[in-house]
Each structure stands twice: as structure tokens, then as C-alpha cells.
Amino acid sequence: MEKVNAIGRRKAAVARVYLVAGSGNITIDKRPLDVYFPSSILQYVVKQPLTTLDVAEKYDIVAHLDGGGYKGQAEALRLAIARALVKVNPEDKAALRKEGFMTRDAREVERKKPGRPKARKRFQFSKR
Predict the structure, then answer these.
(1) Domains identified in the chain, total number
(2) What φ, ψ does residue 30 adopt, rounded to 5°?
(3) What is the domain-level CATH number for residue 42?
(4) CA 104 to CA 60: how far, in whole Å?
(5) Is residue 64 a part of any domain in this protein?
């Protein structure tokens, strides 16, 4: 199996993933998964597509993350891993879609408007 790559995005985070046959090592920006994401919840989020298909020990993953916070980065990485797994085996797409791992969450931060303190908030109205 040759190197398979995929991109995942969430909020301001972008994850580029390279999937290779291996022993289940996940490396993010030259650091192991448990060092990059100390939270066990975020580690679980990243591994969800692999555990759904029972292929956690079959592939080595090298990822490059950019932008966003740790939650957005973890979810972007989950999407990228799911997309890479579908490139390897297209029959897995239905199982991953059923769990919601193939859907790009398109919600982004709304921009601040001029004359307002935030995107939708208004300054206090004064009649007099």
C-alpha cells in the first residue's frame, strides 16, 4: 500500500494526514498522539474512525495540524483520518457516514460588524 493523504477542516483548524500500512502509531507534528493531545477525550475523538472499522493496529498515521484550538484540531484530524480510510477502502464509507465522521462541520465564527461590540450584540439603547 502506498501513502494515502487527505485533508480535514473544522473551524479554523486544518489537518493534513498521511496514512501508511504499519502498526498503529499516530504522529502529529513529529510528536506522539498522547503528547500532542494529553486529554483522553480528544485522543478518543481522533481514534474514533479507526476503532469503528477495527483497523487501529493496521495503519501508521502522520499528521500536520495548523490553526484553531485543540478541540477543532482534534475534529479536523478525525475527518481527515476518515477521508483517508475511505480512499484506502471505499466500502467503509457507509459505516463511517453512519457514525457521522464523513460530514464536514461547516460552522465558522461570524465576523464582527462595524458599529457593534461583537458579531450580533448591540450597544445598550438609551432613549434619553
Answers:
(1) 1
(2) 65, 20
(3) 3.30.230.10
(4) 23
(5) yes
Whether the pTM exceeds 0.70: the reply is yes
Cα 77 to Cα 15: distance, rounded to the nearest angstrom: 5
Could you give the CA distance from residue 19 to residue 56 in angstroms, rounded to a whole number? 12
pLDDT digits (tens, 9 = 90+) for 92-110: 999 999 999 999 999 999 9
Measured distance CA(21)–CA(59) in Å, rounded: 4
- For residue 106, being part of any structural domain is answered with no
Interatomic CA distance for residues 75 and 46, integer angstroms: 7
Grid cell of 7 as nine digits: 485533508
Identify the domain containing residue 51 by its residue range: 4-99
CA–CA separation, 35 and 28 (whole Å): 9
Helix/strand/coil (H, E, C) string of 21-87? ECCCCEEECCEEHHHHCCCHHHHHHHHHHHHHHCCCCCEEEEEEEECCCHHHHHHHHHHHHHHHHHH
Could you read off the pLDDT of 17-68 as tens digits, one per residue? Answer: 999 999 999 999 999 999 999 999 999 999 999 999 999 899 999 999 999 9
